[in-house]
Design goal:
Length: 173
């Protein structure tokens, strides 16, 4: 009988494996929104469950598609008891322009110093065309009203993502 080969796949790489932040309290944070008003995690959770998604940059194709998909599923998320909030390192002014151009119906928060992205572990070394740089890895956190991270979607592929998030929020009930 042939000996089984080791594939090098870790438990974390297996689909459905729990992310290391699931079950933990969400890191507290305060950052400005598109109008420049400071918004805290505590304030957001006071309104119910939270879909907190981190994305690399306003006005880029993938980020625009993701934002518009969340815009189009906001009613379903609200019906399931959650709100959507996006976070990137873009300025409040850039967020305002992005929101206006795409009629976004949820707030975008500005983490210009990448303090919050570091707290959530999404500010990482990335590479593009052989060039390495630090940037935000597209990641979504579903956080319950008690502030506990219930689901993490790391390295998000945009297609179908918003629908998967709706299902994760529905599972909180």
């Amino acid at each position: 009988m042939a000996k089984a080969r080791t594939t090098g796949i870790t438990k974390a790489a297996v689909k459905g494996a729990m992310h290391e932040m699931e079950g933990r309290k969400a890191p507290p944070s305060e950052v400005p929104d598109g109008s420049g008003k400071t918004v805290s995690l505590k304030e957001l959770l006071g309104r119910g469950n939270l879909v907190l998604y981190f994305y690399p940059k306003d006005m880029t194709p993938g980020c625009t598609t993701e934002a518009c998909d969340f815009r189009d599923t906001t009613a379903r998320l609200v019906a399931a008891g959650a709100q959507v909030v996006g976070v990137s390192a873009d300025s409040a002014e850039a967020h305002r322009k992005f929101t206006d151009k795409h009629a976004l119906n949820f707030p975008l928060l500005s983490d210009a110093g990448n303090r919050v992205t570091r707290l959530y572990g999404v500010y990482k070394k990335k590479s593009l065309y052989g060039r390495e740089f630090m940037g935000i890895e597209r990641t979504t956190f579903v956080i319950d009203r008690e502030g506990v991270i219930r689901k993490v979607f790391p390295k998000v592929k945009v297609a179908g993502h918003a629908d998967a998030v709706v299902e994760a929020v529905k599972a909180l009930r």
